[in-house]
Amino acid sequence: MSGRRLPVIVASATVTMFAWGVVLALAPLLTEWPVVPSSYDVYLLVASPASLLAGSFIMGRFTDAFGRKSGFIVDMVLFAASIPFILFATGPLDLIVGIALAEFSLGGDETTLLAYLAEEAPEAHRGKILVGVTNAANVGALTASAISLVTSFSVGLQRLAFALLLASAVPVIVVTRFMAPESFRWLKYRSGERVSLGRGDYAVRVYLLLTMAITVVLTYALMALVIGPYLFPRLTSLIVFTYNLGESLAGFALLPIIDSTSRRTFPFIAYLGGVITMALFIPQYVVARSSLMAFESLLFLNGVFGEMAWAARVVLEPELFPTRLRATGVGAVRAAAYALYTASIFFTQPFSEFSYLVYNVGLWAVGLSGAALWLARGMDTARRPLEAISDIQVPVRKR
């Protein structure tokens, strides 16, 4: 890969992921704005995962068919169009349309970015680049929570701060995306190569990716956004900030080791840690539910393992699908997880706080089951070219 290609791609992807993190944090924050009646809260919250579902699947298929750069441009236009709807909304319908557009574009964009970065990055640094770029979403969410903390006294000031933040990202995204070249692997393999992977191999891969996605998507910030506000209703912004801080710091800490750690053992450690830290919330809730220090400490630790689980997922997703189906496969796995997340919003409405805790432990166990299967039957993809993982070509017989 040319040395001049990589900085452009990484810059574009990093700014985009930062903007997505801000938008992810916006959905729950917007429910507190006066233009949103409480009767619209559930629609605003559902607009986010439903649009992510559609964006992941539709844009995944689009970018496999028409190229990574084409996907970049379409996503960029949709994201730019969403900003005025969100930040200058006069009613809840404006916000719902804006959130839907933003999540469709940015959710679909992450699918494109993962495929693009995996195809362009040198194998020795592929994990580092994928984790480092996607960690920008955690930094974006952390920044949004910090803005919410310091501007909580004024919705008008909050709007202005978010407007300036998101608007400043657009010029960088526009310039870098027009400068970015097409993926050389997409150009090479788009002709529909045959890939010599058996059904058993794909079944293990899909089970791993699907269970990891279910855990990461359905448990993301659930403790911070559901249990935390119930136990400490006046400290919601601080609780969300703590969780995002744990994830952001863990993302940076992983950069030096992600490419030297086995891709078979790393997911198992991440999801085992997630199960343990989530299970510890149960005795904390029963015995010391009023202890902010105990809750915040467990929340920070769970955020660390949550980031490790996220890292395992964003690295393995684009590695385990062949180039001609890479974005489609990643998008389909994510769409399935977001469909379950959308259903989960309604399914868990009658849950008590204790039921939420047990439910969360069960969701982490789902991811652990996939990680355990991969530990037993998977392959270590670290520092291996994609041609040795997924783009395995076999001769096509001439008719």
Automatic annotation (TrEMBL):
Instruction: Give a GO cellular-component term.
Output: membrane
Which InterPro entries does the record associate with it?
MFS_dom (IPR020846), MFS_sugar_transport-like (IPR005828), MFS_Sugar_Transporters (IPR050360), MFS_trans_sf (IPR036259)
Q: Which Pfam families match?
A: Sugar_tr
User: Could you confirm whether the keyword Membrane appears in this record?
Assistant: yes
Q: Where is the Major facilitator superfamily (MFS) profile domain?
A: 1-379
Q: How does it sit in the membrane?
A: Multi-pass membrane protein
Where in the cell does this protein reside? Membrane
Molecular-function GO term, any one: carbohydrate:proton symporter activity
Primary site of residence: membrane
* Alphabetically ordered keywords of this record: Membrane, Transmembrane, Transmembrane helix
Provide the transmembrane region boundaries: 7-30, 42-60, 72-89, 95-117, 129-154, 160-180, 206-232, 238-258, 265-286, 298-316, 328-348, 354-376
- Give the similarity note: Belongs to the major facilitator superfamily. Sugar transporter (TC 2.A.1.1) family.
Q: Which PANTHER family match?
A: PLASTIDIC GLUCOSE TRANSPORTER 4 (PTHR48022:SF2)
Q: What is this protein called?
A: Major facilitator transporter
Q: Which organism is it from?
A: Acidilobus saccharovorans (strain DSM 16705 / JCM 18335 / VKM B-2471 / 345-15)
